[in-house]
Write a sequence for this structure.
């Protein structure tokens, strides 16, 4: 997951952030302790290719916060993010949350807007050294 995250940010998010910003962003996730904390506090779902290689993942906590969603650079625009988001929304329903919230990158904003998420606020998020622009977004879940 760490390699997929790093490669996605360095290659995909580099369209919307500077080289210095994406390097700073990826440096936040280099420590094993950080991954252990995230794995303990979030439920993860993954997408795998035909060779059973991880090509995308998403995570959410019980409060309905979508913490992460990344799709491998070679698997962009193939419906993987849509499938991951559908699964996360199913998990949210199981948790009984009303809203899913997330802090979304410049790169991902339009995807989430197309899926019914709205921008709550624009923010500067501190990575390691730098502050990166992101969006707090949310979606009201309509249970059937």
């Amino acid at each position: 997951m760490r390699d997929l995250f790093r490669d996605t940010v360095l290659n995909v998010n580099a369209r919307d952030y500077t080289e210095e910003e994406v390097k700073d962003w990826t440096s936040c996730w280099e420590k094993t302790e950080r991954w252990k904390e995230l794995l303990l506090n979030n439920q993860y779902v993954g997408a795998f290719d035909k060779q059973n290689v991880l090509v995308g993942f998403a995570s959410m906590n019980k409060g309905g916060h979508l913490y992460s969603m990344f799709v491998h650079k070679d698997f962009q625009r193939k419906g993987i993010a849509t499938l991951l988001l559908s699964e996360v929304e199913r998990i949210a329903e199981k948790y009984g949350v009303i809203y899913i919230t997330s802090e979304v990158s410049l790169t991902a904003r339009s995807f989430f807007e197309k899926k019914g998420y709205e921008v709550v606020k624009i923010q500067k998020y501190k990575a390691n050294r730098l502050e990166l622009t992101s969006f707090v977004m949310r979606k009201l879940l309509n249970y059937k």
Summary: DSSP finds five helices and six strands in the chain. The longest strand covers residues 131-140.
